[in-house]
User: Fold these one by one.
Assistant:
Number 1:
Amino acid sequence: MIVADPKPLQEILAMVEAYKKILVVGCKGCVTVCNVGGIKEVEVLRASLMINGKKAGASPEIDATVIERQCDNEYVEQLRDTIDAYDAVISMACGVGPQFLSEAYPEQMFFPAVNTTFYGGAVAHGVWEERCAGCGTCIIHHFDSLCPIARCAKSLLHGPCGGSSDGVCEVSKETVCIWDTIVKKKMAQGRLEDLFVLQEPKDWRTARDGGPRRSIRETLAD
Amino acid sequence: MPCTGRVDIIHLLNAFEDGADGVYVAGCLEGECHFSTGNIKARKKVAYVKKVLADIGMEPERVAMYNLSSAQGQRFAEIAGEMVDTITALGPTPVKGSNAA
């Protein structure tokens, strides 16, 4: 899933300080699962904005709602009857959400409440780690389904660098050297020779280097 | 509540939103939670609300976490007194909520 972190409250307050009537919109997708933009977080931000406004002696009008997904126009459309009643809208979805909202409602002001970080999963309660870089051409079958593109700080394709020490990356003590893991797994399974295969230089045109990407299902698209 | 583990951030914020001058959570002694870590979770939520108050420009001391056993009635009264003293020193909340004095 897409993982995000909350923006600092002071950053959000600065973004919307000029607006009195604000709608906070959450998303039931990835940001609900990573506890950053679901119904709980939407209510917490709404209450925080209300306390901030009332403290300043104002009479803020802050409402909150959560839609199924902000990355699908049929759900974004559900806001059409109410969205014009607000001076500004805060999206608590990943970076996709505010953009779908902004495109659907060109007259409205939208602000993001989260920093979208990576594609990953939960490794413990409240802890998420990156697993995929969305490079557009998956090659993890060469590496026992462990991705050196996303999980090696240098995205190396032919083994660990000199910064690997005791299974840990020099970038951070919290970061596993994924090449150490790959090599150990190959050795445990007696298939270390797999790594003698020369990997062709990666074609980054399917990643961000090729510009904004599009995905089309021929069987579905008109 | 049967356990402070049920206390959520929104419960504490709603109290401040409605004009509470201060809020404190009284949980079981650390290490004595019948649900293992309910009071530890509550402490983290109180810490989160302290950060929210500070970001908004309010005194973080307006929210507090205390730990005591259900047999410590006298301590409970002392804590109430301590909290009242803290809030009295800070003065009324600047938030004018529906329940504000």
Number 2:
Amino acid sequence: MAKQVTLTIDGKQVTVPEGTLIVDAAKKAGIDVPVFCYHPKMEPVGMCRMCLVEIGRPVIDRATGQVVKEADGSPKVQFGPKLETACTTPVSEGMVVVGASEKVKAGREDILEFLLTSHPLDCPICDKGGECPLQDLTMGFGPGESRFIFDEKMRMDKHVPLGELIYLDRERCIQCGRCVRFQSEIADDPVIGFYQRGRSLEIVTFSEPGFDSYFSGNTTDICPVGALTTADFRFGARPWELNNAASICSQCPVGCNITFNTRREARSGGRMVIKRVMPRQNEAVNEIWICDKGRFAYHFTEGGGSGNSERLTQPLVRKNGELAPVSWDEALQVVAERFRQAGSGLLTLAGGRLSNEDLFNLRQLTQGLGGQTALYTQMAGGDLVAQVGVGQGTNFADMGAGSAILVVASDLHEEAPIWYLRIKQAVERGAMLIVAGARPTRLEKYAAHVVRYPYGSEAAAILAMLNSLSAKRPNLPEPVQALARSPELQAAAKAFAGAQNGLVLYGSEGLGLEGSQALAQACANLLISTNHIGRANNGLIAVWQRANEQGAWDMGFRPRTDLAEAMKSARVLYVVAADPAGDDPSMAEAGEFLVVQELFLTDTAKLADVVLPVEAYTEREGSFTSGERRVQRFYPAVPEPAGLKADFAVTGQIGQLLGLDLEARFASKVMLRIASQIADYAGLDYVRLAEVVEQWPIVGRGDVYYGGTSYENSQGLGVQLAPAAQRGAAVPLAWPEFASQSHSQQASAEGLLAAPINRLLDRGQTVWPSTLLHSRIPQPYVALNPADAAVLRIPSGAMLQVTLNGTARLAAAHLDENVPQGVVLVPRSMGLPIFGPAPVEIRRAEVVSA
Amino acid sequence: MKVIRSLVLVSNDPRSVELGAEEVFRALHAEIRSQGLHDQVRIGTIGVVGEQQHLPLVMVYPEAVAYGPVTLDDVHLIVEEHLLKGQIVMSLLRFLQEPAGELAWLRTRSGALPVQQRIVLERAGIIDPYSLDDYLLHNGYTALGKALTSMTPEQIIDEVDQSGLQGRGGAGFPTGRKWGFVRAAPSHPKYIIANADESEPGTYKDRLIIEGDPFSLIEAMTIAAYAVGANEGFIYIRGEYRLAYQRLENAIRLAEEHGLLGDAIFGTDFTFHIHLHAGAGAYICGEETALIESLEGKRGQPRARPPYPPSYGLWGKPTLVNNVETLANIPAIIRHGSEWYRQFGTPSSRGTKVYTIMGNVNFTGAIEAPLGITLREVIEIYGKGMKHGRRLKLVQTGGSSGSIVPASLQDTPMDFESWRKAGASLGSGALLICDERTCVVDLAKVLLQFFRFESCAKCTPCRTGTQRLYQIVDAISKGHGALADLDELQQLGKDMELLSNCGLGQTASVALRDILKHFRDEVEEHILERKCRAGVCRIPALSPYEIAAAAATPSQAAIEEFEGSTESV
């Protein structure tokens, strides 16, 4: 523990660790030092001068080294001639800080007056008005009136797009540099900066497209004025009209804590609508940041029950070949009857965006009928994560020197941006990062070791690492042996094994279900063998493709490799939150009877015999289990739309019609059942999930100037589950099964292998309805090496006909030297049917003239 | 060995080059060759010292005669008359200062500027700045030799400390103490930086030092590096100083080739490398922490201080940042000892100072004189009196951030202590001498225009304060001022001094403060009488409408009377 230092701030004695800045020490003591440029997450710069205070230090006798005493025995304190910045000055023993003097008061008044000389004071039309640090501090510390003349204010551009997502109002900017510093220090996307100097200083973007960063929205939260606003919320509502509802981002397995700001508005027909997404502080998950996908891609939830969106509004039953609206009673009766007839012929296929409660009920229903369940995913290993997954108490913020992080088969910047951010920060604190991948990714910039393997050898690479650590060298398959000879791989393995803490994140790049299973097992073996299990900051994390796939595994769902056959042979297929037919037309041949439970009329739903419309997760409550196995609650943000039900309720009601004991009313009661039946979730209830503890930095509505407008967390930090290894269970090593075909056998006649990759912003169903993002989402494309392209005579940008799994689609050619030769990268959820590595045929599409 | 009979040096500073110095050089070269004198006459270039009015100059030694301005037409005359026949060309003759170098044969002339005491400029104008041999002939590198072979770093720092040398960049911090801080700083490696980003308007002493005697800076930096324990040094030179840059580049190369820089200097195990970096034209980069940021490749903005560069400088390491002139004093101090150095200047301010004289005097240029001479001496002796016999009104010292000194203070000795007492600062040594035709409001406006343009905009008070100060002064100069503006200006100035992050904001209002202190009546005249006594500000006469409006404004008494009458109703 760092040395403690005691000082006096405005007469109050404060003891804080050495190195703490005065401004933070004051905050901890409940004394507000006003700031604009300072932000507790960033390096101080002392630009705005708002935090100036008087600082006195005890006089030390040079000869004796002792503190000089006054006549009354108190230490003699000498004050500097000038005011000093509380944000750049660390505390020292015996320091006396005065923030309440006339001199300081006058200084603060002057600074505010200076700032306001060039501020347009257009608060009545400013998005920040009502939650604006400049407003608040002017009210709190300002002079009340200005000597400066309104007519002499500088006039500058008010609507400067820094890209499609963020707008700059140059007049409002007070040049605190928080946004510039966030982008360079925290996001390491230095795409905006200061240009010019003096009163001509302005923020500019120098990327193409403008402000090209996945974290750009955060700058609008920490901007202390209304200079930066999002295109999404801009002029959308006034802060004081907004209600807030705690929620969890449903876009990826990080499980960022968010707040939905809602209001009831005439523009939306008098209904309650979501106006924006704001980060909600959870220092163990997302701190106070969210990525732009989480911030802007919520629009898919809109319009429930209103009929003015793509959302389904009422149950549909196929009559005379056409889907026709029916009552819930009728639809549920039809479904229940079919399910009863199907019995063990029921196959329930669920997607990973469902909540734990939905998944639990689905499993209970299906098992009650003797049917089978399947998880619609291309990733495996959730069972291993439950065994050797990260220990309870894991927090990236605690990782630094002594921690090793291995990321394999994942482009984290695209797949889980907040994890990317937090791993980058862990590396900056001294953690050792190993990135294993088939091609360069952005995260490698921070890696101490990079292990390169060919697509198809993901598990082999990890096994090779493991093998290089043991003296015994059993007979290994050739790919493993070849990789094990790489010095870089050996060094990485040694470094990982030698670290105090070891964490592995595995993803799904280049992998299908079988490969993923093998990789997960290999990773688990590495962790078990190097004893990096059963403790906090150790273990396995899966970079799932959807938010709650870990929860689905925990509820008992498993993916199956023979899904297509199983779907065809099922007597009744019950598809919930999945669209196999949309992803791959060959999956359209379902069994005898198809029930689809969905938000939208998907391609699969169009084929269904019964379609059951459900509520979006913003319209109900529930819980997700994050990749770090943190169970977190989300609350309803907008009222339940008439005519829709939550997934768990639909399933519960079907079950009840079938005489099964299922909870169909309250998600909280489903959680109680989960807690009683699923060992890992024992003891959980909604009350525990809602518990909070004090977090640092202190953010929230009361002092928006300090941490920005990120929301204080008062609705729950969630509970991280303990894996089996931490609960004392034995975890066995198992030999992973390699994919039946080797890499070369899978390639097509042209010798090209399609490898799936993941994009943050794709054309998936939960992204595409947010039209604002369209400019950042390219046309369907595949990426290939220029050398391969040259052989095939494919110029960059050419339109290709890509034949995958028997389906031909059009896609643009992206040439990229980072793509290994012989491989075609195919992004998932971009309109091309890719599930795992597969042979691919590409040729230039014939240009059809109109 | 060849006997050189004459040495011909052609001035080669940017202004001279602009005026055709290079053509003159080539013509001289050709002419000397065609006259068959090339075995007896050596031709070279010099950085010009002092004289700024008769460029390009051609100096001929050993007679130490200066001709200027020299055109191509004069070349034949100079070669034929002077070099061939040994007769001075009286029609082209310009007198120069007494060279104060150590070669006795150069001290034979009279009739030039009065004797200056030259330490930092002792070789400038005398040696060929491209020639290491010249530098070595003039005692070059004896100081480094002495330092490396017979002195410990502590002894060197002690010697510098004892000499009483104070920083010549403007603040006057004791150099020896700064060196001591850097030496004592625990972290490694350490760096030294020569601040040659001379951006204070009107100051060009560092340019003259570098252009005239580039090796002395390199020698001084090497000594400093040895003293503080640095192995890497940087010269941050103003981007416009192309010639100085070239000469430094050449000097660094020559020094490296001769084992005077680089690895194993003087055969010892001391290693020191110098990198040259040209600035990009921002005034603020002369501030040491902004300079460091800029050197690190970042936006040139001052850091929050403390920590100061001696403990946390370049890349977070202990860094010595010294002005070029400060460093240029070092070789002489080491060579002659601190005792010798202390004989120059006054008890509180030792040594000499290079002043750059500008404005309404008969002679403008640079001089080096001991600290403690008075402004009157500078104007009368070196400036050769005020132009057209006009009266001195004020002097601005030290460039834009410097003080305004009224004529009444012209007998105050110019040293750090006396001027501090008089409420002024010596600054960089620029002396802007203004006669009574200078308007103080206009002067303030020009200075504030500079600051509002050059404020780096990092901190609020400076960014908006400079703009606001300018607006108010601009309004006064146009006849839109009010008396209340003057209090506001003073208050703003005080606020900026108290609240700003660095020297720029803290001193931007110094000149204005001095003007309001010494020339308030003149500023008030602009406001109350709409008059500019110097005739510089163009204040339009009030229009008939404005006069009528002013007359129609009811007096306070009338208002009170009116209010009284309504109450009684």
